[in-house]
Amino acid sequence: MGRIRGRIIRTAAIDVLKKHKAEFTDDFEANKEVLNGIIIANKANRNKLAGFVTQLAKKKKVEEFMIEHASR
Predict the structure, then answer these.
(1) Whole-angstrom Cα distance, residue 60 to residue 36?
(2) Which residues are CB-contacts of 39 (< 8 A; sequence separation ≥ 6)?
(3) CA distance 67 to 41
(4) What pLDDT was estimated at residue 2?
(5) Which CATH architecture has domain 7-69?
(6) What tens digit of pLDDT does each residue of 13-58 get?
(7) 60 φ/ψ sector (left φ>0, alpha ψ -120 to 50, else beta)
(8) What distance in Å separates the CA atoms of residue 69 and residue 11, rounded to the nearest whole number?
(9) What is the DSSP letter of 26?
């Protein structure tokens, strides 16, 4: 069983990916730097969000995640 993501991280990922999907890669450090310019969050939440986006990018599931959560 995998890690459970909080609602805040999932909704923030949806919002960020809707606007800036092309800027993210499968590199965690690069995603952290991109998020520094996009959102204002504390270090822990920024890292959680960067990790979640990185995980989606590594599995090539960004599009599936966006389609699944687009109606919410």
Answers:
(1) 23
(2) 12, 16, 46, 49
(3) 25
(4) 65
(5) Orthogonal Bundle (1.10)
(6) 888 988 998 899 899 999 999 999 998 889 999 999 999 999 888 8
(7) left
(8) 9
(9) S
Q: CA–CA separation, 64 vs 36, rounded Å?
A: 25
Answer yes or no: are the C-beta atoms of 54 and 26 closer than 8 Å.
yes
How far is 38 from 68, CA to CA, in rounded Å? Answer: 23
CA gap 6, 48 in Å, rounded = 10
pTM score over 0.85: no
Distance CA 64, CA 42 (A): 28
Tokens of 11: 């909704």
User: Taking the domains of the chain in order of start, what are their residue ranges?
Assistant: 7-69
Structure tokens at 31: 């995603």
Closest to 33 measured CA to CA, from 8, 50, 58: 50
